[in-house]
Design goal:
Structural class: alpha+beta
Organism: Acanthoscelides obtectus (Bean weevil)
Subunit structure: Self-associates forming complexes of several hundred monomers.
Keywords: Transcription, Transcription regulation
Number of helices: 10
Strand order of the largest sheet: 3-2-1-4
Protein name: Regulatory protein zeste
Order of helices and strands: HHHHHHHHHEEEEH
InterPro entries: Myb_DNA-bind_5 (IPR028002)
Length: 294
Amino acid sequence: MESEENSGKGKQKRGANFSLSDRKNLLKLSNKFKAVIENKKTDGVTWRQKEEAWIKIEREFNSFTTGVPRTAKQLKTKYEAIKKELKKKYSSHKCYMLGTGGGASKEEPKPETEEEKELLQTIIVSVEGVRGVEIEEIENSSVIVETHEDIEWNTPSTSYLQTHIHPALKVSRPNVLQVDVSGEDMEVTDHNTDSISVAETPSSKSICEIFLINIEPWSCRRRPVIKKKKSMSSASSKFEELAMKKLELVNLQMSIAEEIKKQNAAEHKIKMENLKLKQDILKMELQIRTNDKL
C-alpha cells in the first residue's frame, strides 16, 4: 500500500485539454512576443528575455481565459507542440509534392485560423527551407545594360608631340660663317641666318671663319633662390621659445622640490631631537621615582 501511495505521489497529474479558444489566445499572445521567443540566440541575456516573455504571456493568458489557469511551462509546451504539428503537416505535403506520384491526390494543407497562418509565416524557413532562385526569374528580371558609342581615334600629328619651349628659355648662339674661297667671288653660308652674298674679297686662305660683331650674349639662367617663408621662421622661433620656457619651468620645479626636500629634512631633524629630549626627561623622572621609593 505504501509503495502504491509513493508511486501515486511521484506521478504528475494530467491537466485539462486546451480548448479552441485557449489555443487561439495562446497563438495570439505568442505571435505578439514572437520577436523574443523565436530568437535563435543562446546567450544568457536572450534566455532571461524569453523567460520574462513567457511570464507575461502566462499573466495575460490567465487574465481573460474562461478555462483552467495555465503556467508558463504548460503554455510553452503547448506552443512547441503546435509548432511541431504545423511543421509535420507541411513537411509531409512537401515530400508528397516531390514524390513520383501514385494514389489519390492530396490537397495542400491550409491554416485553420489567422493565428496559425501568422505562426506559419514565422517558421516558414524551418518548414520549407531557403528558397532558391529560378532561372526564369533571372531571365525575366530587368537588367540594365549600358551601351557605349564607338569613338573614332585619330593619329596625332607630329606638331602635338613636339615640346614647346618658351622664348625666355631659348639660348642665343653666335652666328658662325663658313666661307669657301673659289676664285674672286665668295658665297657665305650662315646656318642660323639666311644666305648672304659677299663682294669680291680676295684672300690666300682657303677656309676662314668670320664672326659677326653683333653677337648676342649668352642668356644666363637664374637659379631659383630658396627663401624661407615668414610663417615657417616665425613658427620655428615660437617653438624654440616654447621649448626654452618649458626648460625654465622644469628647472624651477626641480629647485622647488630640492628646497622642499631640505625643509622636510630639517623638520625631521627637529622632531627627532624633540623626541630624544622627551625620552631623556622620562628617563630622569623614572630614575627620580625609583630613588624616592628606595
